[in-house]
């Protein structure tokens, strides 16, 4: 069976199974559990159209997971079928940021590419957040700026839909040319996790990420 799952889809599957485990614990009514199972499987079919019979059998097994131990085993079964983030070298990354003089590079050697939907890293000295992503099969690199609030605020990350207090999520902005005004600029911003590996563990859709990148690239 060929690899057919992107890392964000694996996160989505995990989040749905966690809901199902919750139903087992709290519902106490087999009809509620059955309905949850049906909902979960339907949402996974919607996420993954065009499954082969083998792939479908693997996905159907998600409905049989009843607790955290079984979830761990099930996620291990998915592992061989994950399409990792495409390989990229430091030289290729540098080429994406020709204007950045002293580019800080991500720690490529210690990244698990099977858990990455987008490559993100920070330069703490310049308050820059770098994003690298294969948008429609073409590498794009975006240098953004971030501001961390002096006050402790809790914000939701637009990309992974999770919230953190403190400076876990920050307003990340990119200045882009505004074609309607001569020499005009517009600032595009999203609240995003500053810890990109953590964000990648929670991201279940690429919609907001791609929407942002399409606007600022
Ligand atoms: Zn996030």
From TrEMBL:
One of its GO terms (molecular function) is zinc ion binding. The keyword Metal-binding applies. InterPro entries: EF-G-binding_C, EF-G-binding_N, EF-G_N_sf. Residues 4-86 form the Elongation factor G-binding protein N-terminal domain. Residues 100-205 form the Elongation factor G-binding protein C-terminal treble-clef zinc-finger domain. The keyword Disulfide bond does not apply. CDD domains: FusC_FusB. Keywords: Metal-binding, Zinc, Zinc-finger. It comes from the Bacteria. This is Treble-clef zinc-finger protein. It comes from Tumebacillus permanentifrigoris.
């Amino acid at each position: 069976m060929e690899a057919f799952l992107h890392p964000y889809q694996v996160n989505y599957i995990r989040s749905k199974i966690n809901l199902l485990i919750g139903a087992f614990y709290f519902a106490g009514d087999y009809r509620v559990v059955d309905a949850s199972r049906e909902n979960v499987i339907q949402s996974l079919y919607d996420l993954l159209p065009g499954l082969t019979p083998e792939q479908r059998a693997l996905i159907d097994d998600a409905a049989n997971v009843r607790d955290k131990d079984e979830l761990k085993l099930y996620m291990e079964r998915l592992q061989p079928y994950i399409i990792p983030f495409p390989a990229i070298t430091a030289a290729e990354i540098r080429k994406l940021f020709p204007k950045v003089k002293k580019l800080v590079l991500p720690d490529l050697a210690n990244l698990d590419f099977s858990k990455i939907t987008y490559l993100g890293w920070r330069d703490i000295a310049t308050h820059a957040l770098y994003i690298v992503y294969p948008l429609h099969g073409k590498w794009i690199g975006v240098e953004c700026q971030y501001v961390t609030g002096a006050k402790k605020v809790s914000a939701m990350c637009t990309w992974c839909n999770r919230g953190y207090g403190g400076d876990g999520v920050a307003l990340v902005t990119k200045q882009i040319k505004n074609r309607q005004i001569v020499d005009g600029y517009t600032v595009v911003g999203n609240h995003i996790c500053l810890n990109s590996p953590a964000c990648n563990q929670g991201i279940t859709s690429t919609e907001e990420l791609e929407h942002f990148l399409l606007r600022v690239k």
